[in-house]
């Protein structure tokens, strides 16, 4: 499950990527510093996992991973090949969701491709390019579908009507993810890999002064836009977060206190990213060897969840022993939980819930 970090050039995408992953990729202050996408895996901080690890003292304590992809900046006209154009858009097509970095910080040292700071304009620029590319995809599909109308099969007439509705919405400036789609239209959107359909959250990239300020110009308008769309907004300073990665925890706390910050922006972004992908976490405990948190899409059955650990476990699934984390917490350990009848045996139709501790038999 990959999240693409996107935005206009010099919005702070690579700086944010480096803060998240400590990967040290190039992040210079000129457009298209990033060309090929960089990938980094981050483990989500998880208090439940930490409690399990403190109890079992395993050799390995493995957190739930999220993969972030640093994608080259987009400019107006990208759908027509401007900048890195089609290459940029193809990289977006490959990720499951989008983290849209919106620049709020000013300063002459880092130029803005449009010459001024205007967050809502920048959002409209990027979204317009995604919409233009989606319209191109729909037109290409329409040509193929209309050729198939002569077969007389009703599914092709239905598909044309779906394409008409998608086109009307896009031409009015509405991203696909904000449209009210029928089940048939959702299937078609998935098949076409439409860019504006991807779940999106916004990152307002501030400087340190703006972090401490009570009012930041333009931030209220972005908060309103995100609220109207039912999408999340995370406010942080990518450059400040990157500086914190070089400090010890005590020093980090001191600098955060100076700005009145209760927790790091990266923690909030990781949690928001997890919600964006609609993931849940289950846990496995392997004696003293490993305690592991594994992310899965909501609605996965026990065999599907087991398959995220190893494909053999899904193919040869027999049953699962399951206990909710809160019940394990009250019991204190697995043996007590078994004695008290808190462990359940579940079959292949069981839908795993967030916080389940599972032991798979296969």
Summarize, please.
With 362 residues, the protein is an alpha/beta fold. The protein has helices at residues 13-21, 47-56, 85-93, 119-148, 154-171, 183-192, 208-212, 219-229, 238-244, 249-258, 265-276, 302-307, 311-315, 325-331, 334-339, and strands at residues 2-6, 38-43, 60-62, 65-70, 97-103, 200-205, 233-236, 279-286, 290-297, 319-324, 344-346, 356-361. 43% of the residues lie in helices and 19% in strands.
Structure report:
- It is a single chain.
- The chain is an alpha/beta fold and 362 residues long.
- It is built from 15 helices and twelve strands.
- A six-stranded mixed β-sheet has the order 2-4-1-5-6-7, with helices on both faces. Strands 3-9-8 form a three-stranded mixed β-sheet. A three-stranded antiparallel β-sheet has the order 11-10-12.
- The chain starts with a strand and ends with a strand.
- About 2% of the residues have low confidence.
Structure classification: alpha/beta
Q: Would you tell me the overall average pLDDT? A: 89
Q: Number of DSSP helices? A: 15
Q: Low-confidence parts lasting 5 or more residues at pLDDT below 50?
A: 27-34
Number of strands: 12
How would you write the strand order of the largest sheet? 2-4-1-5-6-7
* Fraction of residues in helix: 40-55%
What is Rg? 23 Å
Most strands sheet:
6 strands, mixed
Strand content: 15-25%
Secondary-structure element order, as H and E?
Answer: EHEHEEHEHHHEHHEHHHEEHHEHHEE
Distance between the ends = 26 Å
Envelope shape: flat
């Amino acid at each position: 499950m990959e999240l693409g970090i996107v935005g206009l050039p010099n919005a702070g995408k690579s700086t944010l990527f480096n803060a998240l992953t400590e990967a040290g990729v190039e992040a210079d202050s000129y457009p298209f510093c990033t060309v090929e996408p960089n990938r980094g895996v981050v483990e989500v901080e998880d208090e439940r996992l930490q409690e399990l690890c403190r109890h079992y003292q395993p050799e390995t304590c493995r957190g739930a991973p999220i993969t972030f992809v640093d994608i080259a900046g987009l400019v107006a006209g990208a759908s027509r090949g401007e900048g890195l154009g089609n290459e940029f858009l193809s990289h977006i097509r490959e990720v499951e969701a989008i983290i849209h970095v919106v620049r709020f910080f000013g300063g002459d040292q880092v130029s803005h491709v449009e010459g001024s700071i205007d967050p809502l304009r920048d959002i409209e620029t990027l979204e317009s390019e995604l919409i233009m590319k989606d319209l191109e995809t729909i037109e290409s599909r329409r040509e193929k579908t209309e050729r198939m109308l002569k077969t007389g099969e009703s599914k092709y007439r239905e598909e044309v009507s779906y394409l008409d509705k998608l086109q009307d919405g896009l031409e009015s400036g509405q991203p696909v993810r904000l449209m009210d789609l029928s089940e048939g239209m959702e299937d078609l959107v998935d098949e076409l890999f439409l860019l504006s359909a991807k779940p999106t959250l916004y990152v307002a990239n501030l400087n340190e002064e703006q972090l401490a300020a009570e009012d930041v110009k333009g931030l209220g308008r972005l908060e309103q836009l995100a609220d109207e769309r039912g999408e999340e907004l995370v406010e942080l300073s990518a450059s400040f977060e990157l500086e914190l990665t070089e400090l010890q925890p005590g020093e980090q706390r001191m600098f955060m206190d100076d700005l009145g910050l209760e927790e790091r922006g990266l923690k909030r972004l990781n949690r928001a990213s997890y919600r964006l992908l609609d993931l849940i976490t289950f846990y496995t405990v392997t004696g003293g060897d490993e305690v592991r948190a594994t992310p899965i899409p909501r609605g996965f059955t026990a065999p599907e969840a087991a398959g995220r650990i190893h494909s053999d476990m899904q193919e040869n699934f027999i049953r699962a022993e399951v206990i909710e984390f809160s019940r394990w917490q009250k019991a204190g350990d697995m043996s007590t939980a078994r004695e008290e009848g808190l462990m359940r045996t579940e079959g292949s139709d069981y839908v795993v819930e967030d916080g389940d501790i599972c032991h798979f038999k296969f």
